[in-house]
Amino acid sequence: MTGASGQVGGELLHTLAPLGTLIAPSRAQMDLADTTSVRKFILATRPDWIVSAGAYTAVDKAESEPELAYAINAEAAGVIGEEAGKLGAAVIHYSTDYVFDGSGTAPWVETDPTGPLGVYGASKLAGEQALLASGAAAMIFRTSWVYGATGRNFLRTILRLAGERTELRVVNDQHGAPTWSRDLARMAAHVISRRGIDGEATAIRGIYHAAGAGETTWAGFAAEAIRQLQQREPETRLATVTGIPSSEYPTPAARPANSRLNCGKLAAAFGWQMPEWRDSLRHVLDEIG
Q: Which of 174, 217, 219, 262 is the most exposed place for a label (fewest CB within 10 A)?
């Protein structure tokens, strides 16, 4: 498994451990920016499954570091696919809603045309293409707005600021679904345990969408988080949320306005329904305490 120090990777350490011997290399052992390092580690360990959660995820910084973003998100993905193909290993790989241009209002399906708006999305799309071109038994799961109880993420920032300020101005014209990192980790464990290592993964290789059920905006996500927190702490004074257009919060990389993902294919192929985002949020707040 790659990306053990990330949000999804940290959860995968727990969900995958019961399924067999789990190897989670450090960057010193397997550097995704170094294809030689990637090849050597896979060859030395000869895994049955490779769960690819490691990625370059600094969306804005990618605009000034395109070579590094492509090395980690695209070149490494292709090499993982090549080496997995040689071993007959199956691959689970995480991708992103940023492969789309954010147009329209309908939830994106896997066959919709892509059109990334920035380097991050373009590098992740290139990784998808390289992995599929490798011929490996690869399942690519596009997700959106990942958060969790630990690490640096939107939810934890909002919870901190809600106690420090009286008003939070949050973008309300980008639409999608928050996705709990643990839900993505549980999904991976479900896929592996359901399919097993029996060659069936080859028949279901391809792209799947996996995001929290329902939809909201970033402002809606923030407001719901504060509302649920207020229920737990009725005596605490918390900030109110004011929605603003993206034009009032400029960033180096453009964000898609429509990040809605249709997850019907995921349910049909694996019998897995992504939980409703408000329910997952409630569990995360319980965990944060």
A: 262
